[in-house]
Specification:
Blueprint lengths: L10 E2 L3 H10 L2 H16 L1 H5 L8 H5 L11 E5 L9 E5 L8 H21 L11 E5 L8 E3 L4 E3 L14 H16 L6 H23 L9 E2 L14 E2 L8 E2 L3 E2 L15 H8 L1 H14 L7 H10 L9 H15 L2 H13 L8
Parallel strand pairs: 2-4, 4-6
Antiparallel strand pairs: 1-5, 2-3, 5-6, 7-8, 9-10
Helix pairs in contact: 1-2, 5-6, 6-7, 7-8, 7-9, 9-12, 10-11, 11-12
Amino acid sequence: MTDASGRCACCAIVPPKVLRHIARRGTAAQRDAALATLATEATHRLTRATAQSLGSGAARAAYAGASAAPVKSRTIYDVAHRTTLPGKIVRSEGQRATRDAEASEAYDGLGATFDFYWQAYRRNSIDDAGMALHASVHYGRKYDNAFWDGRQMVFGDGDGDLFNRFTSSLDVIAHELTHGVTGDEVNLTYLGESGALNESISDVFGSLVKQWAKRQTAAKADWLIGAELLTSKVQGVALRSLKAPGTAFDDPVLGKDDQPATMAGYVETSADNGGVHTNSGIPNHAFYLAAAAIGGYAWEKAGRVWYETVRDKRLKPAATFAQFADRTIVNADHLFGGTVKTAIAGAWQAVGVAISAP
């Protein structure tokens, strides 16, 4: 979903094509939940567009009163199954956990993502200026999604049939918050290759936050996004796989994971803003291959290169896969030298992205 500028007005974890497939193939209850999710997103499109992303400098102005010190400031709200945000405060920073599992998971997920960005990259919250983190839980009724609206996180409870509660997956929380990081630094246009890069960057750092929290090496990580979301009724393991794009699910109701792993399978489409959730499998797989080749903790070298590339002022909002790849190679050379540079260049070549960086 984009605003008039082509930038992401509401970056949600479940692609619209999956929801539409459920609406066509699901039971009456599954269809109702999927259609309600799609309808709610359409109804609130303009509202979200006004806060579509932080934008370079915008967050710093909006949150000028936030402390520059690396101190977490989280607030969790309960929307009580309505759609008017943010809702009633149920937990603020430092308060004890409530009995609400969704509120606790949201609180912990925001904290883990904050801690990751600070400890791994010395980034002070989403805007690197101490931005307070807000999340609303129990959004809508059987709402099958979670999203970043440009200012806060929003979580549905899922329908309980195909999808579990959306706060249950740390990598999903980190994925959505990373849309805020990308929006603040480069605000990649949410269309075509730049939109797919936008989605891929969120998948990459969503996976890295989970790996960091579990202290997993690249070899031990599952490289899945949203593994906790799918119920036992779904034939699949997650929403996406960085290790093996196209294999995350193959289900009569959800459809089949159609992500390509290489440019040979690039999908030309007008749907989903030019296939942003589909073609993101290509840069996703490049990152996995690079991290696997480098070894160790993926956030330390491959992740650092990707992070510095997102911050690279020479990267433009309409960046293509090849342009992003070239910047990763240049930044890898600058940060770590030959071995890491070679691994990253080889990963992009393996997925068929043409590189020109020396």
